[in-house]
Specification:
The chain has about 550 residues and is mostly helical. It has 2 domains: about 210 residues, no CATH class; about 260 residues, no CATH class. It contains 24 helices and 2 strands.
């Protein structure tokens, strides 16, 4: 049954590929890639490759890297819920009780999850082939690039499916998948970019090394997932593993969370064993002490350990060795919050709908204000404390490195960017949870909006500056990066005198130029725009949620 006669594969393909969103996604994907090639196409009627022989290679590299990044972001969204979705739909036990072999189930889930993504990748092949007549890139280099892309996508898909077999919720599986995949994707981008001038070596590595590494990761994970389905630890509970927190802590490998000790109780307070005090918000208390960690702390422990392992080399390089790269570390902290923040808020309201308790909650004496701030603050507290674990090296560097003492306002600006990002990710997730029915839909909608606000303007600005420098449209697109905390972090001036000779630091303000506390006004304008935009956005979102909860039927009707 592991072949085309696999009933799991057939069912998944029929469901996934017949949905309208499959055709819409294919259309948007093709339009996006075709637009990149169209606008980056040389405007000259005659292209002289002797003057600019690398123009075509740059275009193909941009096309391939863009597709690689998109595939890395989409692979978990297709595969992370392959098995965990069965647990959430209470069909996990029926699947395990069927005569289908575990290997066939895992293979069917993996192939079905990646088939739609494979269609997107192969459908883009004719577009990149249009670049070959320009010269500079051979047909075999393109095939090698696609081979490396396919091997990477299979690996990312298998990692996501494996995460889904360990977690009972798709949201937890999705976050751990992203935390694991993004470092691998970053390594792939650095590998491809650094070897742009060594085409033969890159070709050999793409054909021989990358598929071998992919097989080394994929095959063990495949058999681990199959073994878990052969001897499932969560069988007999409708696919919902009953977690004993004390036993989980005793058996945990690596980080152990003690919910009654500092600092663990900041983000994972123990369950309440006494009556609540007068004036306590019951929604906030219930979310913090029972709801968020009702399925154990495995996802939380993995997120902390993976992020800290990655943070150590990034911190050492950006904050101590190459100190002018401090904005890159702040961007890493912001990225971690973007990944982890929505998880604790995206299911705040949708989980009530899924349990059919939302109408009961709306008819209690708890006011809409208490419901909203209780759910918002609980998710914000967990995500901000977890992200703060990566922020403390900045304060340590401020104490140990004297060069940061003259950049105190810059450090304050970094902290403001971090705090506003934490607030925005939690607010967006809660808003999506209010207007959507399912937690998985709410989470994916939140990530989509965040990508459109934080990443899409940066990609558009990079493309415009690369191919249309000085154009009015490029200036408009660059101004749109005011929505991104990444752009704000890099726009805040940071002065490092010991890097003056290599031109790596910001140029100090000249006399006569408008300044604020010694910082050029033009450099701070972008930061001020980001702060204004973020505060306005959060106020609008919170006001809309208050309005919807005051008109209780607007929230309740979302279940219809």
């Amino acid at each position: 049954m592991a072949s085309l006669e696999n009933p799991v594969l057939q069912r998944e393909l029929l469901v996934n590929l017949r949905m309208p969103r499959a055709f819409v996604l294919l259309l948007l994907y093709q339009v996006l890639l075709a637009s990149v090639v169209y606008f980056a196409w040389p405007s000259e009627s005659y292209v002289d490759l002797t003057k600019n022989p690398g123009s075509t290679q740059t275009l193909v590299d941009l096309f391939f890297l863009g597709q690689y990044i998109l595939a890395s972001l989409m692979a978990p969204s297709f595969a992370a819920g392959a098995i965990s979705g069965e647990k959430e739909r209470n069909t996990y036990e029926m699947l395990l009780a069927s005569p289908i072999r575990p290997e066939s189930i895992v293979m069917g889930k993996l192939v079905a999850a990646l088939t739609h993504l494979a269609i997107l990748i192969f459908a883009s092949l004719p577009i990149v082939m249009l670049c070959l007549p320009l010269g500079g890139v051979s047909f075999y280099e393109v095939l090698a690039a696609y081979l490396a892309l396919i091997a990477s996508v299979i690996t990312f898909g298998m990692i996501s499916v494996a995460c889904g077999s360990f977690f009972p919720r798709t949201s937890a599986s999705l976050v751990v998948s992203y935390l694991t995949i993004l470092p691998l994707a970053l390594i792939g981008v650095l590998f491809w970019s650094s070897l742009s001038e060594l085409g033969e070596i890159r070709f050999q590595l793409s054909v021989a090394v990358i598929p071998g590494v992919a097989a080394f990761i994929t095959i063990p994970l495949f058999y681990i997932c199959s073994a878990r389905m052969l001897y499932p630890p969560d069988f007999g509970s409708e696919g919902k593993e009953v977690v004993d927190l004390e036993m989980e802590s005793a058996q945990a490998v690596g980080l152990v969370i003690q919910r009654d000790q500092f600092p663990d109780r900041l983000f994972a307070p123990p369950k309440r064993e006494t009556l609540m005090d007068d004036g306590t918000n019951p929604v906030y208390d219930k979310e913090m002490r029972s709801e968020i960690f009702g399925q154990g702390t495995l996802m939380l422990r993995l997120a902390i350990q993976i992020s800290m392992v990655i943070a150590i080399p990034v911190m050492a390089w950006c904050l101590y060795i190459q100190r002018h790269l401090a904005p890159w570390y702040i961007s890493y902290v912001v990225l971690f919050n973007i990944l982890i923040g929505p998880v604790f808020s995206a299911g705040s309201v949708t989980s009530e709908r899924e349990r059919q308790t939302l109408d009961l909650l709306l008819t209690t004496v708890i006011t809409p204000w208490q419901i909203l701030w209780g759910k918002l603050l609980s998710g914000l507290r967990v995500s901000s404390v977890l992200s703060s674990f990566l922020l403390w090296p900045v304060f340590l560097a401020l104490i140990m490195v004297s060069a940061y003492w003259s950049n105190l306002l810059t450090i304050v600006a970094y902290i403001v960017i971090f705090c506003l990002t934490c607030l925005t990710t939690a607010m967006l997730a809660l808003f999506c949870s209010t207007i959507f029915r399912k937690t998985s839909t709410s989470l994916m909608a939140t990530y989509t909006v965040i990508l459109l606000m934080y990443v899409a303007p940066l990609a558009a600005a990079f493309f415009g500056n690369e191919y249309f420098p000085g154009a009015k449209g490029t200036q408009v697109v660059s101004a749109m990066t005011v929505t991104s905390p990444f752009a704000a972090a890099f726009q805040v001036p940071i002065y490092m005198d010991d890097f003056d000779d290599v031109g790596q630091n910001w140029i100090p303000a000249v006399s006569g130029q408008a300044q604020i506390f010694g910082y050029p006004l033009d450099d701070l304008a972008h930061f001020g725009g980001y702060v204004t935009f973020t505060l306005t956005l959060n106020a609008i979102l919170f006001g809309m949620m208050i309005w919807m909860f005051n008109s209780r039927w607007r929230v309740s009707n979302s279940t219809q």
